[in-house]
Amino acid sequence: MHFERPKRAGAGWRGVFLALGGAAAAQGCLVDLDDRCGKNQHYDASSEVCVCDAELAREGGECVRCGANETGSADGCVCVEGFSRANAESACEAGAVLGEPCEIDADCGEGYDHCALEPGAEAGYCTASGCSTEADCPTDYGCNTRPSPTYCERPPQGLGTPCTSGDDCAGFEASYCETVSAQACLVNDCAPDPDKCHGDWVCCDIGLLSQSLCIPPSELEDGNCPVGGKLVPRSQ
Fold first, then answer.
1. Model pTM?
2. Would you say 108 and 126 are in contact if contact means Cβ atoms under 8 Å apart?
3. 173: confidence class by pLDDT, cuts 50, 70, 90
């Protein structure tokens, strides 16, 4: 089972094997310590790894220059302060900031034009409206198609945070540390109440893990939960 949306999740066994293979190969060659990294990279002594130069980000194994109003980060090219994207494929444009507090739609700007209000919350948050699926939404936001207009619903606090034990997820809404595949904090125990899953994320009761977890619909396999899990439908 593989979760793409917790983007900061561990590399998995394939990454371990690649790392081991690289280490073995390194024993048979000499390295120029003054030029140990590839193009557009430099050696970071604090982390002892090669990192991309400023204003570049790793894309497909190479360091590439970020676009207009973007800067490099550990998560790839991201918008600079004061700019945001309407979705993952959009350019960074000046305007409302995703998740910015609001009270009415007029408080939000172009791109994130909808003020989503949550029951009991003191304020809403700016987000994109008119979505059809999670693919229309940025980052880990899910498309909530139940209200009108539809909108990109923000993820539970802590979703996708890297973890190795439950202690790393303590205090988050996403309080379960899934260590088999994602190595990330997820929302669990959704079977009694599938509405715990935000947006269009679905609840899968996975016997292999003895857990029910909220996962993005893109992880379903022909409409079925991965690894033999059972899809738990919402009440409405």
1. 0.61
2. yes
3. very high
Examine residue 141 and state whether it is found in any structural domain, yes or no.
Answer: yes
Domain coverage including residue 225: 166-232
Residues 170 and 228 grouped into a single domain: yes
Q: Are 96 and 110 in contact (CB under 8 A)?
A: yes
175 with 219, same domain? yes
Q: Whole-number mean pLDDT of the chain?
A: 80
Looking at the structure of the chain, the number of domains it has is: 2
219 part of a folded domain: yes
Give, in degrees to the nearest 5, the angle at Cα 91 between 90 and 93.
Answer: 115
Q: Are residues 213 and 170 in the same domain?
A: yes
Q: Which of 154, 181, 204 is the last residue of a domain?
A: 154
Q: What share of the chain is helix, strand, coil (3-state, %, to 5)?
A: 15, 30, 55
Q: Each residue of 116-128: b (16+ CB within 10 Å) or e?
A: beeeeeeebbbbb
Q: Is 145 exposed, middle or buried (0-12, 13-18, 19+ CB in 10 A)?
A: middle
**Does residue 96 contact residue 152 with C-beta atoms inside 8 Å?**
no
Q: Which residue has the tokens 């008119």?
A: 130
In 3D space, the residue among 187, 11, 235, 212 whose CA is nearest the CA of residue 226 turns out to be 212
Judge if 187 and 147 occupy the same domain. Answer: no
DSSP one-letter code for 91: P
